[in-house]
Amino acid sequence: MRLVNRPLTVRTAAGLPRAFTWQGRELCVDAVRDVWADTGEWWRGEPEKIFYRVSAGGGLYEVYFESASASWVLYKIYD
Amino acid sequence: MKTKGFAHLHVHSPFSLLDGASRIEDLVQRAAELGQPALALTDHNNLSGAVRFTRVARAAGIKPILGAEVTLEGGYHLTLLARDSRGYRSLCRLLTQSHLTHPRGYPAASWESLSAHREGLVALSGCRRGAVSARILAGRLAEARASAERLLGIFGRKNFYLELIPGLLPGDRSLHQALAELGATLNIRLVITGDVHYARKADFYLHDLFTCVRTLTTVSALHLERPLNAENYLKAGEELMALLPEFTWAMAETAALAAELEPSLPEGEALFPRFPTPPGETAAEMLRRLTYEGAQRRYGRLTAALNERLERELAVISRLGFADYFLVVWDVVREAKERRIRCAGRGSAADSVVSYCLGITEVDAFRRELLFERFMSRERAERPDIDLDIDARHRDDLADYLTRRYGADKVAAVATYNTFQGRSAVRDLGKVLELEEAELDALAKRLPYFVTADGIRAARERVPELKNSSVPWECYEQLLDFCAAAAGLPRHLGTHLGGLVVAREPLANLVPLQRAAKGVVVTQFDKDDVEDLGLVKLDLLSLRTFGAVEESLRTLRTSGQPLDYDRLPLDDKATFRMLQKGRTIGVFQLESPAQRALQSRLGAGNIEDIVASLALIRPGPIKGNMVEPYIARRRGEEEVSYLLPALRPVLEKTYGVVLFQEQVIAIATIVAGFSAGEADRLRRVMTHARSQAEMAAIGREFVARAVARGVAEETAQAIFATIAGYASYGFCEAHAAAFATTAYKTAYLMCHHPAHYLAALLSLQPMGFYPPWVLVGEARRRGVQVLPPDVNKSAAQYTVEGGAVRVGLKQIKGVDEKVLKELLAARSNRPYTSLADLKERSGLSADLRERFILSGACSAFGSNRRALLWEDKLGRKGAAVADFSQTDKILLEWDILGFSPSGHPLSCLRPRFREQGIRSICDVLRLSRGREVQVAGLPIRPHRPPTRSGRTVAFFSLEDETGILDVTVFEDVYRRDGQMLFSGTPGPLLVQGHVERRGAGVSVTAARIQALTKITPGTAYQE
Question: How do residues B163-180 score in pLDDT, each as one tens digit?
């Protein structure tokens, strides 16, 4: 498992990630395995994040969406 | 619509104690906004919110479903819902068993008890801590299945559901899938719940802080019980459905179950016990017999009017079904009298002649023409409430008697819920927000006790000790927001001071029971909720004054001066002369500065003046400007007038001023022809009227009915305006009369037997308005010598020794029961003869021996305290060392005893004060009105009662070695100097101001208040 924590461009449908580009390759999401929300350190002003564990292109990835900045981040890659 | 009929079946309110962050009202309101037809309440192991929730939900048009999330042995959670009243009763029994068979704070239901109390209950498999879900999450699928099968076996297919909670938590998808598969395999239906802990998403933050408080962590610390996200809010069915789109059918099951469950709170049942009457006699007949026997004793001859009154009362009591209640109370009083425990009824029960004849109260309601309808009437929906004051030392004995008489399972104390107030919210929430603890403590200490958690911001603008402080408010904005949100939410369960419920059947069928601190078994409902449920509460209130009375009578008896307290003359001239001087420190209910000032102006000459006094010094009459007209009329300085001649009989005893609630009722009866019951209802509506429109509507009815009886419209309107103005703060005459006798009699004791009475007051502290040092000062002012503790002469408590008060050994700091027992046991063989003897036989530690020496308790072994110390510590007997100075002796005694038998601390500074033109208090008391003075003393009980103008006026008393003086601080001075009075424990103060004289009372109006720095041994006061 690798911690990446890098911004990501994600294509969505019905609010769910469908594809994203990583290391120049567009990966299609095969399945959303799990979804959860995390409020983080709210007392320090950290915004809520929605995490998605997805399988894509034969790998397992954790990406999150931060609604406050409307941005996606690739959080982890499961090797 | 797929979510039609959906209702939340797993909801926590603040009664989950630190695991629910929204008021019941807010949860219900949100459910109503979302159009949900029902709502369940499932707090952790309690039904504490059930009554309020039922009331609020019904008012909002929502069906209330009662339940609880119970903890099973092993720590697993299970959601239980009552199908109907049978289910409610099962839940009460189950919760009671969970609490009473496990250590306090750790309730747990066994599988056996679950099985025994399943009737009428529906079980949902629970949250992630449920036996099924927890095991699925742990990967123990076979165990999860076994748990599901076990629950299915207990509750049956109709009453057991697997619970899907879409909480946006990691693992939700696989958990839900596994639950669905299990359901399919075992043919168990599934429902969707929200595991709601707050109404709206924004309430999550407070809930998270509450979790930190509960788990003793802080916001930045990790804890398994900290929620990961803010998803436990009360969601719309559509939101839940969006999270679980594949479980449409479970949504339908949820709606179907919600529709099946009925409101389950018992209603309209007779819950009060039947009194065990003799064979062949009903409760009503027994009550009648006892009443007439009592009437014979009280009155001798029964007149037609008395007979008519008794019949009227008995008819109402019997018709409303309260004969048993009166008999239960009569029986407690009978038991108390048999055991010589002083006790007396207070409150509106004293409006009843039946209560008087039964010996429950000591107020002759017939002679006083008190209105029974203020206490009970057919029109009045509320249950009567009889409060008994009992010698505090024996209150628990009578509670035990009730338990033995009716069965331990049918008697319990009533709970109270301590809620977040200003101070507790600052401390609890500030700590978890990781604010500096010492600063939080300083802020909390500065907050006056009356500041609510949502009133801190307002208070910092107007309260001097906050405004004129160095509190870094800018650091606390977030904290103050959370404090405001937490305001009034329950923090923990406590025990009501006196309330007990006695039920016809085991209480556990009606309300869950649990243990409060000290092991007392309490209902999970507070006093209002037990009454709403239909249980009748009996208040056995501890009154320390009765203990002081009994102790005085005992010491008088043993000193050969027996006193027939119950037959004291009620017209003793010396006692009234004392009252007229305002010398009432230590007198029950008449000792506050306001009462002292009133007494010195009123010129009380009979017991009725005392009854009026008790009603006058209340926020209402003070705000309503009733005090001055009353005094003026009482003194003959203002003409007594009546708006209608017919009102004269009602208002004559209060000089035309409406002072008592009973008078409001009588006026409505005379003027507008209301029945007494209707009139009491009118009084109560007027008291609680929330709007001008409501009050105007009542006024129209009153005036219309008065005009119909021939009263001029203008007069009727004027009378209504008068009673409307007074109704909200009028005082119950019966209550005032019940207290007045004790007030007078304690004044008699203080007047004629000050040493005995003060020794008793000091022995039974805390009680009354003043700390011990003020009572010691009062003893001196009355010429009663206060002798220091003496290791050979003192008892544990204060005693009377040749007309002087001897300080008890218990007063020495650090002396506890164990120390005393050992010390006194050794002394009972022979007195202590020397310090060495004391050291050898008493078991006193070195620290305690030092305190004994410094407080003067070892003077039998030598008068030089420093030499005694040397002897004790260094073994050098008869060392040639100088004794402590008088100042040091006084200050050391003050530190050890809380006062000084050797003198007053201010006396040490008198020479310097004289040089600076600072007068003694006895000097000020002789000065004429308007004289400018500087006076110093120790401040006593600074307070800021409500005032008519709404402006803050502070009052306190100053004491020096020569006397006591009241000081008034008006708004401008209060705003500038108020922090001297209200910051922590104020030290000695210097007050500049001018003398006021009113009647026999003298006070100073402060122009400036300055603190004198704290005095310590070896130093002197400094400005």
Answer: 999 999 999 999 999 999
Q: Give the C-alpha separation, A50 to A66, whole Å.
A: 7
Chain A contacts of B205, Cβ < 8 Å? Answer: 42-43
Q: Do B173 and A42 touch (CB under 8 A)?
A: no
Tally of structural domains, chain A: 1
Alpha-carbon gap: B172 to the closest alpha carbon of chain A (Å): 7
Predicted pLDDT at B1022:
38
Which pLDDT tens digit goes with each residue over B935-957? 999 999 998 876 767 788 899 99
- CB-based contact A1:A19 (threshold 8 Å): no
The band of B691, judged by pLDDT with boundaries at 50, 70 and 90, is: low
Chain B contacts of A60, Cβ < 8 Å? none
Q: Give percent of chain B above pLDDT 90.
A: 77
Query: In terms of Cα–Cα distance, which of B567, B566, B613 is closest to B587?
Result: B613
- In this predicted model, which residue has the larger pLDDT, B535 or B152? B152
Is B208–A33 a contact, with Cβ atoms under 8 angstroms apart?
Answer: no
Cβ A39–B229 below 8 Å, yes or no? yes
Q: Which helix (H) or strand (E) holds A47?
A: none
Cα separation, B1019 vs B1013, in Å, equals: 10
CB contact under 8 A, A35 and B168: yes
Query: CA torsion B894→B898→B902→B906, rounded to 10°?
Result: 60
Cα distances from B522 to residues B400, B493, B494, B541, B1011, in angstroms, run 14, 9, 8, 16, 46
Interface of B with A (CB under 8 A): 168-174, 204-205, 208, 219-220, 227-231, 433, 478
In this predicted structure, what is the pLDDT of residue B379? 73
Residue type (1 letter), B863 = S
DSSP state of B374: G
Element (H, E) at B94: helix B85-100
ipTM: 0.95
Cα B143 to Cα B148: distance, rounded to the nearest angstrom: 9
Residue B1013, both tokens? 């720095």
Residue ranges making up the domain that contains A57: 2-78
